[in-house]
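Protein Record: Sequence and Backbone Structure Tokens
======================================================

Structure line: whole-number tokens from a learned vocabulary of local backbone shapes, matched to residues.

Purpose: to set a sequence beside its fold so the mapping can be learned.

___
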Amino acid sequence: MCPMADAAARLTNLVEELFGTPFPLRLRTWDGSTAGPPGGPVLVVRHRRALRRLLWRPGEVGLARGWVAGELDVDGDLYTALDQLTAFAARRRGTIGLSPRDPRQRAALRALIGLAGLLPPPPPPPEEVRRSAGVSHTRRRDRAAISHHYDVGNEFYALVLGPSMVYSCAYWDTATVTAPDGSRTGFTLEDAQRAKLDLVCRKLDLQQGMRLLDVGCGWGSMALHAAREYGVRVTGVTLSREQADHARKRVADAGLADRVEIRVQDYRDVRDGPYDAVSSIGMAEHVGAAPYLEYARQLRALLRPGGRLLNHQIARRPERAGSVYQVDEFIDRYVFPDGELSPLGSTVSALERAGFEVRDVESIREHYALTLRRWVARLEDGWERAVVLATPGRARVWRLYMAASALAFEHGRIGVNQVLAVNTPPGGASGLPLRTRTWTG
């Protein structure tokens, strides 16, 4: 019998021997064979090269490279498959390595090497960040990281995000959202993003003639909304030239060039304060834990006494005592190079150390899961166009990271919070109403 015959059954058995627990997904391999439980999603191994990637780089990086290269795929519901794979990894009793101690594992590993045809490791897909060692979060390295993520093409982002061009958590009407994927709601993605932008404006108490600094302004949606709906003058800063070009065109088309200025500028180089308010929506994740206090101090220095900061930021759960936080390697290598998530408590503490008075914290974790599922649906609906606008590998990166992130928000592994802080003057007059939550009304 051909040693490669029925590769799916052989691979399933070897994985279960190595990990010591049943593999939850049905497998289909490069020879057309299938094995495993029927009725659910199918993990497709299109090429033996995917196994070689895992043998040379076990774990998340090897899996990510196989996925981005198109050697691994899922037929059926991606969310279910990711949930089952996550649970499988959590239950495993062993790990793939070059020298497993158990004799059966050693035998299984040798058989897996034979099945994979072990050769030198395949080169990483071109979408992976090539980065030299050095200090993170320098101005130059931050520009490169932002360019990797955002300078993918404005048309690609428009396909995923929709006309709002807002790349942060939307704010859904919970009275109409009745399913985890939002499928039965009449509240559209555009409605939810508009509601989020308006919520930020109300929390900042924007008034006609005020000056707003929008840090990490993206494609200009917050700046446009604040200028059009609240009559404020807005300065938006971004490190992405493609974002800035698109935002400037939107500003001109809206006839708001007299109220909105879009700059390609690092927030650390803004010098034209004081501003009445600062919005930072989905930007602080790029700042890094070590420079975060500098970030907070810089924003406070740009605010007038009594001015408000609205910091909208993804947060991770704090580690248990004695544990070490591990950066998600797939996200770091393919999505947000040098991105860092901090616990909410660390963020609040840094803002307070910088001199802010933190007045309100609102968790909107479930809202981000709904938002991400909408983005994934838009990407899948426009898949053929997406791979033309970006690359097949880049589109696969975005599909995997958004789907996995939706599950992470749903299961509470990460969250997102809006923190309202005030540059309270010495007299203590914050300017906030006694009942602040009236803005959510």
About this structure: Residues 7-116 form one domain. The chain has 16 helices and eleven strands. The longest helix spans residues 392-410.
